[in-house]
Amino acid sequence: MITNKETAVQAARFLLQIKAIKLNNENPFTWASGRKSPIYCDNRVTLSHPEIRTYIRQRFVSIINDICADVDVIAGVATGGIAHGVLVAQDLGKPFVYVRPEEKKHGLNNKIEGELKSGQSVFVIEDLISTGKSSLQVVESLREHGCIVKGMAAIFTYNLEVAKQAFEQANVQLETITDYHTLIDVAAEENFIKTKDLESLTEWRKNPEAWSEMQSNK
């Protein structure tokens, strides 16, 4: 769920202004999976904008303080959650580790980088939630290590039903700074998209696979 409406609107506005999120119905983006999508999100762009980077850090810190102020360690999801996770850990004066969804194929074959002990409580920082699969692989790795995962926070979620169900099944509390619903509303209100595009953008979220297939068959 999103933290609060005012925060979600401001964060969506920031992401659109710096083009960390781009929307294009007419010329859809191709994701790594090969699927077509009217939205592309690259939250790494936020790191180049100190005001926005600070805003995101402050929102993350607020979420953590509300949920589990006594958490032992902050963990960033590789790679998008690493930089934001470091900023949050520095602000809170907490140790930091980062976690890969899969182990390295060389060296020590680590999934978890940094010092982390069994029994410690961990809060996870992520940049983006799509299906939730890779994010929850990180949670699984932390639990296998003997840690207690207090929750996860992300900058943005696509609000896909598959992700909602996955987090519920994994018993992980997820909080996001902003989300897809808020984003497209702000995009329409502030003329980042045309009103006529709203229907197609809504349909994509309901069924990304069908939307992609329709675009591919055009």
Explain what the structure shows.
The structure is a single chain. By secondary structure, the protein is α/β, with parallel strands linked by helices. It has a single domain (5-216), classed as Rossmann fold, CATH 3.40.50.2020. It contains 8 helices and 10 strands. It has helices at residues 5-17, 50-68, 82-92, 133-144, 161-170, 180-189, 198-206, 208-216; strands at 21-23, 29-30, 36-37, 39-41, 73-77, 96-99, 112-113, 121-129, 148-157, 174-179. The strands form 3 sheets. A 6-stranded mixed beta sheet has the order 7-6-5-8-9-10, with helices on both faces. Helix 6 packs antiparallel against helix 7. The protein starts with a helix and ends with a helix.
In short:
The chain is of the alpha/beta class and 218 residues long. It is built from eight helices and ten strands. The strands form three sheets. A six-stranded mixed sheet has the order 7-6-5-8-9-10, sandwiched between helices. A two-stranded antiparallel sheet has the order 1-4.
